Amino acid sequence: MKLNSGGIMWKLLRKNISAAQLTGFAIANLIGLTIVILAVQFYGDVKPVFDDEESFIRRDFLIITHRVTGMGALMGSNAVFSDEAIADIEHQPWVRKVGRFTTSGYSVYASVGLGGDGRKLSSQMFFESIPSEFIDVDAADWNFDPKHPVVPVIVSKDYLSLYNFGFAAAQGMPKISEGMVGMIPLMFTLTGAGNSEVIPGRIVGFSSRLNTIVVPEEFMRWSNERYSTTPSAAPARLIVEVNTPGDMKIKQYMDSHNYEIAGDKVDSGKANYFLTVMTGIVIAVGALISLLSFFVLMLSIYLLLQKNTRKLQDLLMLGYSPAEVSKPYINLVIAINASVMVLSVILMIIGRAYYMPLLEAFGSVGGSLWLAIAVAFTIMALITAGNVTAIRRRISTLWRQKE
Amino acid sequence: MEKIELKNVLPAVFAGRDDTGSDVWLRNVAFERGKYYLISAESGTGKSSLCSFIYGYRCDYSGLIAFDGSDIRPLGVKAWCDIRKSHIAYLPQELRLFPELTAMENVELNNRLTGFKTQKQILDLFDTFGIPEKAHSTVSRLSIGQQQRVAIIRTLCQPCDFILLDEPVSHLDAANNKIVADIITAEARRQGAGVISTSVGNNVAINVDKEFKL
User: Fold this and answer.
1) Is A292:A299 a contact under the CB 8 Å cutoff?
2) What span, in angstroms and rounded, lies between the C-alpha atoms of A226 and A108?
3) Measured between CA atoms, how close is B121 to chain A, in angstroms?
4) What is the rounded radius of gyration, in angstroms, for the C-alpha atoms of chain B?
5) For A166, phi and psi rounded to 5 degrees?
């Protein structure tokens, strides 16, 4: 008869293993670890909603102006940013870069033909330009050639919504998609400095970052030279890319300089900040549960080794090394921890299936699962390393304190 | 390993005694491979202590114990594991069997370390000792005399230079004593090993080269 010798060791050393204690550890750690990785995964899934270029809660760019007060408006002063003020903003630690808005210094009249019945939509308007690195639309024809003047324009996404859901709906006009807009012929009449000219234009994109009508900087320079009588003025609006959105220092700086941040971008920054804080708290709670369960396991192992001291010493007397004697317990711990990790990842994926439909409404396709899995693996690897070290040390003590 | 030497060794519990009246304590003693030694002692003279010093699981003594001229105090875990697996076969007085395992499993726990004997050779030993039917009984169900024989079989299931026996036949009758003596001498001869046996009266029936009074 062939005896399974590895089996004998296990038969000997499994005595006194407390299934209740190990189950308690496994469940507690499963809960803790699942909380941690579900929070990590949720953060990963929600983050794209905040970071997405197209998202309404885009956070990294702030458009700032001077706060318009009654007195300031009457005085007509201080509405623009001086070079010194811009330099000061650029030197703030939370600023990545600053872009200036240039405004057209002439009158613009735009007209759009709607359908074949001769109806036209006409409006007085204006142009602004900013350095192209701040533009969130990837437009192919974003340039201007004076020899063949066609003006590419990027308008705020809000304008399209306003037309589609307001104007078109009320007037019984066709709704238009972003793709169709490029085909609509626009005519701009530029008037100023005694000149007047009609130039064709085309909407090349919609921006959710810029709440204005943007043209290329080349066109702005060319047209201001021809039609503007006022010299190029200091900018009234700035676009600022920040690296720590939601930072209270930004708000304090803006308030102390009487600047105003356009729209709800700061609120979205705050939302993002609170998301980070909340995720941090949830992760901390999960990690605490995991840590406590780790101590339960350690205690259980210590009790087990204590009860089996005599057997372990007898094995050492036969010539087994502490490493060989530790092995069944180490294998046990690895098996439990690996099962907890796998179960926890499964629970996380199930949990995710419940919340993802809610996020899809915001256009999130979800982040990768790998970060959460890597976190689960790292935590379990650390816990296992802690357990293994404890077992080894305990058994080494048996070797040294024999009898 | 060819030689085990004791130089001026005294257990810590006997510290301060100048003359122990012993042939071993505070003397220079050498045990050589291939020879048979009997250490006869009365209770409380440190017989089991001597075994535990030589087997490396206690070091509460003064003086020097050397294997082939090297002090054994600095030996590490790895070296002792190797000595216990392949150089010294030890039968503790308290046997140290695992009561929840079968006799065969107990033997196998030692044998698997070096794969020294085949299953058949082990079963033959059970047969020779007159307990073939006990091979697969749990040790807790065996009599003390049967347990002593199982422990001896376990001790013999490894390569060795010395067989260290702490009261090997204390629970055996004369007939079984003879069997144990025959098997141990046969195994020692096969391996060229030395035998060091202790006794408080019931000596193992081996013709010894030298007897020490502890």
Assistant:
1) no
2) 13
3) 12
4) 17
5) -105, -75
Q: How far is CA A320 from CA A252, B67, B78, B98, B109, in A?
A: 68, 21, 10, 15, 9
Q: In what order do the strands lie in the sheet with A195-207?
A: A102-103, A128-129, A213-214, A151-156, A195-207, A186-192, A107-114, A119-125
Give the burial string for A149-167 (b: 16+ CB within 10 Å, else e). Answer: bebbbbbbbebbeebeeee
Give B140 to chain A, closest Cα distance, Å.
Answer: 14
Beta-carbon contacts of A299 under 8 Å, excluding residues fewer than 6 positions away, are A21
Residue range(s) defining the domain that contains residue B16: 3-213
User: What is the pTM (predicted TM-score) of this model?
Assistant: 0.64
Give me the amino acid identity at A239: I
A11/B101 touch (CB, cutoff 8 Å), yes or no: yes
Measured at the CA of B149, the angle between CA B205 and CA B143, to 5 degrees, comes to: 120
Q: Closest partner residue to B58 among A1, A320, A403, by Cβ? A: A403
Chain B neighbors of A320, CB-CB under 8 A: 81, 113
Taking all residues of chain B, what is their mean pLDDT, rounded to a whole number?
92
Residues of A in contact with B108 (CB under 8 A): 3, 5, 8
Confidence of residue A53 (pLDDT cuts 50, 70, 90): very low
Q: Do B84 and A12 touch (CB under 8 A)?
A: no
Tracing tokens 């046997």 back to the chain, one arrives at B95
Q: Which residue of B has its CA nearest to A396?
A: B77
Q: Cα–Cα distance between A208 and A56 in angstroms, integer?
A: 7
Is B79 near chain A, with CB under 8 Å? Answer: no
- Give ∠ CA A273-A278-A284 in degrees, rounded to 5: 130
Cβ neighbours, 10 Å, residue B71 = 12
User: What is the tens place of the pLDDT at every residue in B86-99?
Assistant: 999 999 999 999 99
Chains A, B: CB contacts within 8 A come to 60
Residue B47 CB-density burial (10 A; 0-12 exposed, 13-18 middle, 19+ buried):
buried
All residues of chain B having their beta carbon less than 8 Å from the beta carbon of residue A325 are none
Locate tokens 């318009």: which residue? A68
CB B84 within 8 A of CB A317: yes
Give residue B213's identity as a one-letter amino acid code.
Answer: K
Structural domain tally of chain B? 1
Residue ranges of domains in chain A? 5-53+270-400, 104-232
SS3 call for B9: strand
In tens, the pLDDT along A63-103 reads 888 887 665 555 555 578 888 888 898 888 888 888 888 88
Contact list, A11 vs chain B (CB under 8 Å): 100-101, 105
Percentage helix, strand, coil, to 5, in chain A?
A: 55, 15, 30
Q: Is any Cβ of chain A less than 8 angstroms from the Cβ of B101?
A: yes
CA distance A8 to chain B (A): 7
CATH number, domain of B73, equals 3.40.50.300
